[in-house]
Amino acid sequence: xxxxxLCTCCVLHLTLVLYFAPVEAVLRCVCVCPKNLQVxxxxxxxxxxxxxxxxxxxxxxxxxxxxxxxxxxxxxxxxAVTFIKVVIFIIILILSLLILYMLYLFAEDLYVRRxxxxxxxxxxxxxxxxxxxxxxxxxxxEKWRKGLAEQRKNVFHRHTMLS
Length: 163
Fold this sequence. Notes:
163 residues; three-stranded antiparallel beta sheet
């Protein structure tokens, strides 16, 4: 229940921030100029942050002569900084949650090794013994490794395929 509540609060907060936050945008002027007039594949790109689209003039961005600017193509672009910040925030949040989960698994593994039982409820097996979640994972991994070894033996030594 607390995890669902926490996720709901995070999504609600993120939605409110995105809805009410002023849209931050950065205007920049990008001028693409050819290095040589004969070769059109080699180009030089000049970028300058501007305040208004009217300021996107080749002479101000390239700092060259008007003859050089005849062959340049300049246009202004608007970058949505808020969107980039939100994407980075979501990525950092997901990575943080994964790291916290990994730390929890390490702590539980240490607890199991120290006290010999899991801190959570365990599931009884057929023979009445208790089996922790970590033991079940280890058993299934061991079973998978045995099956993989059997397949390797069949394919590489006996030259037969399992169906």
